[in-house]
From TrEMBL:
Subcellular location, record wording: Cell membrane
Source lineage: Bacteria, Pseudomonadati, Pseudomonadota, Alphaproteobacteria, Acetobacterales
Matching SUPFAM superfamilies: ABC transporter transmembrane region (SSF90123), P-loop containing nucleoside triphosphate hydrolases (SSF52540)
Name of the featured protein: ABC transporter ATP-binding protein
Annotated ranges, domain ABC transporter: 331-565
Topology in the lipid bilayer: Multi-pass membrane protein
Domain of life (superkingdom): Bacteria
UniProt keyword tRNA processing, yes or no: no
Gene3D superfamilies: ABC transporter type 1, transmembrane domain (1.20.1560.10), P-loop containing nucleotide triphosphate hydrolases (3.40.50.300)
Signal peptide limits: none
Statement: the UniProt record of this protein carries the keyword Cell membrane: no
Organism: Commensalibacter oyaizuii
Keywords: ATP-binding, Membrane, Nucleotide-binding, Transmembrane, Transmembrane helix
Domain spans labelled ABC transmembrane type-1: 17-297
Amino acid sequence: MKRLWQEEIKFHPKRIFLIVFFTILMAGLTALYPLVIRRALDMFKDNDPRILYQVPLLVVIVTAAKAASQYGQTLAVQELVLVVIRGLQNKMFLHLVYTDIAKVEREAPAQLASRFTTDALSIREAMIRVVNAFGDTITVVGLIVSMFYMDWELSLIAALLYPIAAVPIQKLGKKVRRASGNMQEQIGKTAALLNETFAQARTVRVYGMEQREVERAHRSFDELYNATLKIISGRARVDPIMEVLGGSAVAAVLGFAGWRAAMGGATLGDFSGFVAALLLAARPLRALGSLNAAMQEGISGLDRIFKIIDEPTQICDKATTTALPDGQGRVRFENVHFIYPGRHLGLQGLDFDVKPGLTVALVGPSGAGKSTALTLIPRLHDVQKGRILLDGIDLRDMRMSDLRSAIAYVPQDPLLFDISILENIRIGKPDASDEDIRKVVEGAAISQFVDSLPNGLNTRVGHGGQLLSGGQRQRVALARALLRNPRLLLLDEATSALDTESEYMVQQALSKLRKDRTTLIVAHRLSTVRSADLIVVMCDGRAVEYGNHETLMNLNGLYARLVQTQDLNR
Ligand code: ADP
C-alpha cells in the first residue's frame, strides 16, 4: 500500500485534495442529521410552531448538500482510482514488452492479459473501499462526537462494544487474501484455456475434441466457482458479525436509557437523536468492518502486479556497450552452450564460422537445436557458455538496438499483425520511402496477389494474418525483411509445402534477399541446402559435419543419411 502511495497516488495532489474536501463535507453533513432530528423532536414536544417551516427546510438543505458532496466525492474517488490503475497497467506493459522473451513465454498470453484486467479490477475495488473507508471513519467520528455531545453515558456504553469485532475481522481478512490469490490465478487459467480452445477451433472440430474441451472447460469453471465461493463466504461472514454487534449495542443502549428514564433522566429529543446517530453509524461501521477483507483482495492483486514489474530483465544492455562495428556480417559461434531452464538437452558446444555475404544452411534431425541457435543471434536468449561474435564483437558487448536493427528474421510460419499489408511491411523500416516499399513489394512478388484484394496493399490481414494464405504471409514477412536491408538475415524455412507457384515466388524473393548479405537458414528443402555456400549439420546441440552438398554427400555421414531418408530429399 505504501508503495502504491509512493509510486502512483501521491502524484495526484489535486485529486486527493478534492476527495478529502468532499469526504469531510459529506461526513460532516451526515453527522448533522441527528442534531436536526433532536431539534425537531424538542420543538414537537414544546408545540413550537416553527417546526412547520424550519425543520423541513433544514432537512432539505442538509440532504441536498449531502447529495451534492456525495456526487463530487464519487467522481473524485473514481477518477483517482482509475488514474492509478492506468499507471500500473502502463508500467506493467512497459516492463513486459521489453523484458526477456523467456519470461513472457512462461505464461499463456491470456493469462498474462488477465493481470491487466482481473487483477486491476480487484485493486480498483479495494482502492475505492479504502478511500470510502476514510470517509466512513470521518462520518463515524462525527457521529460519535454528536453522540457524546447529546449523551456521553449512552455513548460510552455503545463504544465499549465495537472493539470486540476486531479479532474475527482480522482473521477473515487473511483468509480472503489467500482465497483471492487463488481466484485471480484461476481466472487467468480459465482465460488461457478459453483462448486455446477458440484459437484452435478448427482442430477441435476436425479431431472431434468438442467433448474433451467441454469437460476441460467444465473443470475450469468448477474450480473458478469454488475459488470464488471461498472468497464470498469469507466476505459474507463479516456483515452478520457487525450486524449482531450493532444490535447488541442498540439493545444495551435502550436498556440503559429505559432504566435511566425510569429514574427521570434525559429528554425525548436527546434520546431519539442519540438512537438516530447510533443507527446512522451502523452502515459506515459495517463498511469499516468489511474493509479489511476487501483490502486484502486488492493487496493480493497488487502483489502479483508488483512481482511482474520487479522481476529484473536479464537480457539488456551492459553499462558500457559499443556501437555495431563496421563489417559485412561475419558470424562466429564459439563453443556456444544454451540449455532451456528445466531441460537437459540444448546447444552444447556449437562452433561454426560464417564469412560475410555467404549463405549457411543449418540442417539436422528435429530437436538438434537449429532454431534455438537462430534465436541466440538477436539475443532472444543469451548464451550460457561460449560466445557469439558479429563482425568480431561479442553480441553482449554491443548496443542491443544496434544489433537488432542489423538483423531481419523470417519465422517458419509468420504471424502478421492485424493491420494492413502495407503497415505490416513497413515494420521492417518505419521511415522507408514509397519507392523502397514499391521495390520490396515487387521483390517479394506481392503485387500478384495484392491486386486481387479489395483494398490492395491497404487491406487488413485479420487476426494473425489469417485472411492471407500461408505462402502469402511468408511473402509479406519476406518483404518486411527485404525492406530492412539487414546485414544479417535469419530464416526459419517453412516445412509445410506451398503450392508450386507460391513456392517459386518465395524462392525468387529469397534469392534476391540473400544476395550480398550473410544468411542463416534453418533449411528443410534440398533445393535450399544445395544452393547454400556452407552446410552445418547439427546433432544433439553440436555441429557434427561442415561443407557443401557434394563434400558432405561424399563423406557419407549423417548428412547423407538425412538426404536419403528425410524431408531433405524433396
Ligand atoms: P530444431 O530447430 O533443431 O528442431 P529446437 O532448437 O527447436 O530444435 O529445439 C532444441 C531443443 O530445445 C528441443 O529438445 C526442444 O524440445 C527444446 N526447446 C525448444 N524451445 C524450447 C522452449 N521455449 N522451452 C524449452 N525447451 C525448448
